[in-house]
Amino acid sequence: MTSANRYLPPNTLNKLLKVLVKSESLLVIGKSVNLLPIYGLRLGNGPVKVLMWSQMHGNESTTTRAIIGILEEFKSGKALKILDQLSLFIIPQLNPDGSKAYRRCNANDVDLNRDAVSLTQPESVALKGVFDEFKPHFCFNLHGQRTIFAAGKKGKPSTLSFLSPAVNHEGSITQARLKAMQIIVAIKNNLSTSLRNQIGRYDGAFNINCVGDLFTSLGATTVLFEAGHYPMDYDRDITLNFVQDAIMTGLNVIAKEDYIHFSANEYQQIPENSKDYVDIIVHGVTISDGNETLKNQSLALQYEEVLDNNKILFQPKCLGYGRNLDIIGHQTFLISDLNIPDSIEFKTGKIIEIF
Ligand SMILES: [Zn+2]
Which residues make Cβ contacts (< 8 Å) with residue 105, sequence separation at least 6? Predict the structure, then answer.
């Protein structure tokens, strides 16, 4: 299985930005390790300032695609009203090197979401520079999450997840955090009919080197968005619509200050994400593992996403096996229904070409 839509390299994105955004609104805010430009764009002249950044992790393109969708909405004249109230600063792709290589980290193999205080990387310096200069009231920290999460223990797949980042180890709820919780509840309620039981919450342990934790500690309300898995939507096209809707709802409730009507208690009731899924489970497999041969096993496979010729290739890799796996498969098969031998020599990470 492959996906062309999941790969959004800087060249492709930058061409789109130049069509969608007036040149005077498009700025270069820094350069990546490999000297690619990091773009930022300014929209609106309102008194309330919102900073958002996407693709801090290069293999998380869905929220960047959502930003493109939002820019298209603005260009077509839709939703322009909120730009009277808001000033937006958008960094569509903070990690262009990682985005080009389709990997989480930057070209120095640093996770930029663990570099907020240390500022060892040029991409982190660029984001912090914008934060210090723009002085946002609100921040949207836009990410994508793996297919493994359920919205609550053994719940449905977590298609969207949110977090109001912590400001200390005690989990104190400051004004900035409270607003993030209220915004998340407003978004969740707006999506609850179309995405019933598919919205999760992260349990955020405090780490000041995570960008959201730092910015919230500095008093800017920060909402973490995670675009996740919708059943069988490995292109994330369905998720894309939901996350675009979520971002627009977030902007709308900020513009109208509507979030104040929502309660932090309701935030705590959003089910916590639980690692309960794998991509594929194959039943009825005979496993040979070292000297042992075990019949009638269930084999769990997880896709690894590999950049291959401008597409993302999903390679099913062996994760584990057992008679009764305590995990849910997004897809399940009987080995007798697949066109492969029913006996598999197991090795963690081994690719099984099942289709
Ligand atoms: Zn991420």
Answer: 57, 58, 95, 98, 111, 112
Q: How far is CA 328 from CA 273, 300, 346, 350, in A?
A: 14, 9, 20, 20
116 CA to centre of ligand 1 in angstroms: 14
CA distance 266 to 249: 17
Can you tell me the distance from the alpha carbon of 48 to that of 350, in angstroms, rounded to the nearest whole number? Answer: 51
For residue 158, give the nearest of 166, 168, 148 by alpha carbon: 148
What is the distance in A from the centroid of ligand 1 to the CA of 56? 7
Torsion over CA of 327, 330, 331 and 334, rounded to 10 degrees? 10
> Position 59: which residue type?
N
> What SS3 state is found at 105?
coil
Centre of ligand 1 to C-alpha 62, Å, is 11
Q: 308 Cβ partners below 8 Å, 6+ apart?
A: 2
Angle CA(119)–CA(305)–CA(53) in degrees, nearest 5?
35
State which H helix or E strand residue 329 sits in: strand 328-334
> What is the 305 CA–ligand 1 centroid distance (Å)?
15
Could you report the per-residue pLDDT of 185-212, keeping only the tens digit for each? 999 999 988 999 999 999 888 999 999 9
The type of residue at 209 is N
Give, in degrees to the nearest 5, the angle at Cα 137 between 159 and 67. 40
Q: Indicate the SS3 state at residue 38.
A: strand
**Contact yes or no for 322/341 (Cβ under 8 A):** no
Rg (C-alpha) for the chain, rounded Å, is: 21
Sketch out the chain's domains with CATH numbers.
2-275 (3.40.630.10), 277-345 (no CATH)
- Cα-to-centroid distance, 349 and ligand 1 (Å): 23
CA-based angle 196:238:139, to the nearest 5?
Answer: 80
pLDDT tens across 11-65, in order? 999 999 999 999 999 999 999 999 999 999 999 999 999 999 999 999 999 999 9
Ligand 1 centroid from CA 294, angstroms = 38
pTM: 0.97
